[in-house]
Design a protein that fits this description.
alpha/beta; 5 strands
Length: 257
Amino acid sequence: MNRIQIDKLKADLRDLRLKNMAEALDDAIRTAHEQKIGHLEFLSILVDVQKTAMQQRSFDRRIQQADFPRNMHFENFDWHFQPSLNIEQLKDLKSLGFIEQRHPLLIFGKTGSGKTHIATALGIEACKAGFRVKFFKFQELLSFLYTTLADDATDEAIAKLSRLDLVIIDHIGYIRQKNEYPSLLLDFVCACQDRVSLIVTTGVSPGEWSQAFGSAPITHDIVDRLFHRAHIINIRQGKSYRTEGPNAPELKVQTDP
């Protein structure tokens, strides 16, 4: 194959939006010549290059759309720091069966115990597996739903979220309250039930949620739906990474002179 043919083939591949195959063509031809690779293997190499690149772009797009707070994944998770964490349970959840079954996952733990890291790491694993994910801080979700009331777009917004595979609601607790928040949250949870897997993290026990949300009857309905078929991670007795972890500041004890 001469240079003119190669350049034309590259241009044709780019026209077909196969730019990664075009970029890999020269190296693939050189490898095929040196290793005496057959036509099918040569084509397979190019297809693998394009497929891998497309999968990476798709993963990057899902990560961007998920809007995770930080790059918290299992590769930088300290599996042995938290003695109250059920490691076998978490590794089982890492297989993402709960997302396929559309079950909720509730993570209870005090501040700094790793709730957000676990939720985000599971979300990243879900993105790797091709699931559509969205991450919200609790206040951000309620504020977003509240803004949709102005142009009567709440149903549309909730319907769009309910078409995702996983929604993470981080740090349910005491918030800047508005009268509409409890009913908005209930509408969202009802729309997601049996359709979308929810991961919820909180440092507040369910018995205190009515105080946090401001409406006991609606809170009861929300809790009832979230706990239905839910998986529970309980690290409320766990240590804090911020105050007891390897990067925690050293507390110096001052003694009397």
